[in-house]
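We modelled the chain as a single entity of 120 amino acids. Its sequence is:
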Amino acid sequence: MGALDAVAARVGAGATVEFRPSGSSMVPLIRSRQLVVVSPADPSKLEVGDIVLARVAGTVYLHLVSSLDPARRRVQISNNRGRVNGWTGHDRVFGICVAVDGISRAGAAGKTRATSRDPS
């Protein structure tokens, strides 16, 4: 179980979580170790370009929504370098990134579910 699995469990349980993901697949939107805030998402409100915390084929990613399939209640997840991770159901989209280093992501707040604060 990776670090993002633990974050996904907390967000999936309804908490808004702050953490510092590592890696370069989301540069320049998110740089390694920048502070991000992820709140539980309402998957039916997602749009292409939203950054979500989602499980795809057994792995949890903090990546972009690259395509939508509302009829089948699923989203396609990709990194910011053109790599498509795959399709995943709405039930595996745990959260949406609402802020990076204290700067709110435009439009993200309206796509969240009710939350509790969990700063760990």
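As a brief sanity check on the tokenised model: The mean pLDDT is 93. The longest strand covers residues 59-69.
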